[in-house]
Amino acid sequence: MRKHDYLEVNRLRLFYAFNFSEDTRKNIITLRDELQANSFQGNFTLDSNLHMTLAFLGECDTRKTATAINVLSELDFSPKTVCMDRIGCFRRADGDTWWVGVAENKALAAMHHQLTEDLRRVGFALEKRSYLPHITIGREVVTSTTPRSFEPFYEEIFSLELMKSERREGVLTYTEIHSKESTG
Protein backbone atom coordinates (compact mmCIF):
# COMPACT_ATOMS: atom_id res chain seq x y z
CA MET A 1 0.00 0.00 0.00
CA ARG A 2 1.37 3.39 -0.98
CA LYS A 3 1.42 6.25 1.51
CA HIS A 4 -1.78 7.90 0.22
CA ASP A 5 -3.82 4.77 -0.54
CA TYR A 6 -5.39 5.24 2.92
CA LEU A 7 -8.21 7.24 1.30
CA GLU A 8 -9.55 3.99 -0.20
CA VAL A 9 -10.07 2.51 3.27
CA ASN A 10 -13.39 3.27 5.01
CA ARG A 11 -12.23 3.50 8.62
CA LEU A 12 -8.80 3.95 10.14
CA ARG A 13 -7.60 3.96 13.75
CA LEU A 14 -5.52 7.17 13.90
CA PHE A 15 -3.21 9.00 16.26
CA TYR A 16 -0.61 11.78 16.13
CA ALA A 17 2.86 10.74 17.26
CA PHE A 18 6.50 11.60 17.47
CA ASN A 19 8.84 8.95 16.13
CA PHE A 20 12.43 8.67 17.32
CA SER A 21 15.99 8.75 16.07
CA GLU A 22 17.91 5.48 16.00
CA ASP A 23 19.89 6.40 19.16
CA THR A 24 16.76 7.15 21.19
CA ARG A 25 15.06 4.03 19.84
CA LYS A 26 18.07 1.93 20.98
CA ASN A 27 17.85 3.39 24.51
CA ILE A 28 14.13 2.60 24.71
CA ILE A 29 14.67 -0.91 23.31
CA THR A 30 17.28 -1.58 26.01
CA LEU A 31 14.76 -0.65 28.72
CA ARG A 32 12.01 -2.69 27.08
CA ASP A 33 14.26 -5.75 26.67
CA GLU A 34 15.32 -5.56 30.31
CA LEU A 35 11.68 -5.43 31.41
CA GLN A 36 10.79 -8.33 29.13
CA ALA A 37 13.66 -10.46 30.46
CA ASN A 38 12.37 -9.93 34.01
CA SER A 39 8.67 -10.54 33.27
CA PHE A 40 6.48 -13.62 33.50
CA GLN A 41 4.15 -12.41 30.75
CA GLY A 42 3.38 -9.38 28.62
CA ASN A 43 2.86 -7.95 25.18
CA PHE A 44 5.97 -5.92 24.47
CA THR A 45 6.05 -3.10 21.93
CA LEU A 46 7.76 -3.96 18.65
CA ASP A 47 10.87 -1.92 17.83
CA SER A 48 9.13 -0.39 14.80
CA ASN A 49 6.10 0.69 16.89
CA LEU A 50 7.96 2.70 19.56
CA HIS A 51 6.61 6.26 19.53
CA MET A 52 5.21 8.99 21.78
CA THR A 53 1.52 9.76 21.18
CA LEU A 54 0.52 13.41 21.16
CA ALA A 55 -3.20 12.83 20.52
CA PHE A 56 -5.32 9.73 19.91
CA LEU A 57 -8.19 10.10 17.45
CA GLY A 58 -9.60 6.57 17.34
CA GLU A 59 -11.64 5.24 14.43
CA CYS A 60 -11.89 7.77 11.59
CA ASP A 61 -13.78 7.64 8.31
CA THR A 62 -12.41 9.16 5.09
CA ARG A 63 -13.77 12.64 5.90
CA LYS A 64 -12.30 12.70 9.41
CA THR A 65 -9.00 11.37 8.08
CA ALA A 66 -8.85 14.26 5.59
CA THR A 67 -9.71 16.70 8.41
CA ALA A 68 -6.96 15.23 10.63
CA ILE A 69 -4.45 15.69 7.80
CA ASN A 70 -5.59 19.29 7.33
CA VAL A 71 -5.25 20.05 11.07
CA LEU A 72 -1.71 18.66 11.03
CA SER A 73 -0.82 20.61 7.88
CA GLU A 74 -1.92 23.85 9.54
CA LEU A 75 -0.18 23.19 12.87
CA ASP A 76 2.73 25.54 13.47
CA PHE A 77 5.44 24.27 15.80
CA SER A 78 9.14 24.68 16.40
CA PRO A 79 11.58 21.89 17.33
CA LYS A 80 11.17 20.51 20.84
CA THR A 81 13.74 18.74 22.98
CA VAL A 82 12.26 16.09 25.23
CA CYS A 83 13.98 14.22 28.03
CA MET A 84 13.18 10.59 28.81
CA ASP A 85 13.96 10.35 32.51
CA ARG A 86 12.08 7.49 34.19
CA ILE A 87 10.28 4.20 33.79
CA GLY A 88 6.90 3.51 35.33
CA CYS A 89 3.62 1.71 34.90
CA PHE A 90 -0.13 2.06 34.96
CA ARG A 91 -1.49 -0.67 37.23
CA ARG A 92 -4.06 -2.95 35.59
CA ALA A 93 -5.85 -6.06 36.87
CA ASP A 94 -4.84 -8.11 33.81
CA GLY A 95 -1.21 -6.92 33.87
CA ASP A 96 0.39 -3.51 33.98
CA THR A 97 1.17 -1.11 31.14
CA TRP A 98 4.84 -0.13 31.40
CA TRP A 99 6.26 3.05 29.87
CA VAL A 100 9.30 5.29 29.57
CA GLY A 101 8.36 8.71 30.93
CA VAL A 102 9.10 12.15 29.55
CA ALA A 103 10.18 14.93 31.91
CA GLU A 104 7.82 17.87 32.35
CA ASN A 105 8.07 20.04 29.25
CA LYS A 106 6.02 23.23 28.94
CA ALA A 107 6.58 23.56 25.18
CA LEU A 108 5.37 19.99 24.60
CA ALA A 109 2.34 20.57 26.85
CA ALA A 110 1.50 23.76 24.94
CA MET A 111 1.78 21.91 21.62
CA HIS A 112 -0.53 19.16 22.91
CA HIS A 113 -3.01 21.78 24.11
CA GLN A 114 -2.98 23.62 20.77
CA LEU A 115 -3.41 20.42 18.74
CA THR A 116 -6.28 19.12 20.89
CA GLU A 117 -8.04 22.51 20.78
CA ASP A 118 -7.70 22.57 16.98
CA LEU A 119 -9.09 19.03 16.78
CA ARG A 120 -12.04 19.76 19.07
CA ARG A 121 -12.86 22.88 17.07
CA VAL A 122 -13.29 20.77 13.91
CA GLY A 123 -15.43 18.15 15.63
CA PHE A 124 -13.15 15.49 17.13
CA ALA A 125 -14.21 14.05 20.49
CA LEU A 126 -10.97 13.48 22.41
CA GLU A 127 -10.14 11.92 25.75
CA LYS A 128 -10.56 14.30 28.70
CA ARG A 129 -7.77 12.88 30.89
CA SER A 130 -4.57 14.79 31.53
CA TYR A 131 -1.79 14.36 29.02
CA LEU A 132 1.12 12.29 30.38
CA PRO A 133 3.79 12.05 27.67
CA HIS A 134 5.29 8.56 27.62
CA ILE A 135 6.45 5.72 25.39
CA THR A 136 4.62 2.44 26.01
CA ILE A 137 7.05 -0.48 26.14
CA GLY A 138 4.75 -3.27 27.36
CA ARG A 139 1.10 -4.10 28.03
CA GLU A 140 -0.45 -6.78 30.24
CA VAL A 141 2.93 -7.17 31.92
CA VAL A 142 3.31 -9.32 35.00
CA THR A 143 6.75 -8.91 36.53
CA SER A 144 8.54 -9.04 39.84
CA THR A 145 10.83 -6.15 38.88
CA THR A 146 10.43 -2.58 40.06
CA PRO A 147 11.06 0.54 37.99
CA ARG A 148 14.75 1.35 37.86
CA SER A 149 16.51 4.63 37.39
CA PHE A 150 18.62 5.27 34.32
CA GLU A 151 20.69 8.06 32.85
CA PRO A 152 18.23 10.45 31.15
CA PHE A 153 18.43 10.70 27.38
CA TYR A 154 17.17 13.38 25.02
CA GLU A 155 15.46 13.60 21.65
CA GLU A 156 15.00 16.66 19.47
CA ILE A 157 11.62 16.52 17.75
CA PHE A 158 11.51 17.99 14.27
CA SER A 159 8.32 16.43 12.92
CA LEU A 160 4.91 15.17 13.95
CA GLU A 161 3.26 12.27 12.16
CA LEU A 162 -0.34 11.22 11.69
CA MET A 163 -0.21 7.45 12.10
CA LYS A 164 -2.64 4.63 11.41
CA SER A 165 -2.84 1.51 13.53
CA GLU A 166 -3.84 -1.78 11.94
CA ARG A 167 -3.32 -5.52 12.21
CA ARG A 168 -1.38 -7.06 9.33
CA GLU A 169 -1.25 -10.83 9.43
CA GLY A 170 -1.95 -10.67 13.16
CA VAL A 171 0.80 -8.12 13.89
CA LEU A 172 -0.06 -4.63 15.18
CA THR A 173 1.52 -2.20 12.72
CA TYR A 174 1.79 1.59 12.84
CA THR A 175 2.22 3.43 9.55
CA GLU A 176 2.72 7.13 8.87
CA ILE A 177 0.10 8.59 6.55
CA HIS A 178 1.06 12.26 6.84
CA SER A 179 3.90 14.24 8.38
CA LYS A 180 4.53 17.86 9.33
CA GLU A 181 8.03 19.28 9.77
CA SER A 182 8.71 21.91 12.41
CA THR A 183 9.01 25.51 11.29
CA GLY A 184 12.06 26.43 13.34
What do you see in this structure?
With 184 residues, the protein is α+β, with helices and mostly antiparallel strands. It has one domain: Cyclic Phosphodiesterase, Chain: A. Helices cover 24% and strands 42% of the residues. It contains three helices and nine strands, in the order E-H-E-E-H-E-E-H-E-E-E-E. The model has no long low-confidence stretch (mean pLDDT 91).
Q: Can you give me a brief rundown of this structure?
A:
This protein is 24% helix and 42% strand. With 184 residues, it is α+β, with helices and mostly antiparallel strands.
String of helices and strands: EHEEHEEHEEEE
From the coordinates shown, what is the CATH architecture?
Answer: Alpha-Beta Complex
User: Between the first and last Cα atoms, what is the distance in angstroms?
Assistant: 32 Å
- How much helical structure, as a percent, in the residues? 10-25%
Structural class: alpha+beta
Number of helices: 3
Low-confidence stretches: none
Which fold name is given in CATH as the topology?
A: Cyclic Phosphodiesterase, Chain: A
User: Shape from CA axes?
Assistant: globular
Largest sheet: 5 strands, antiparallel
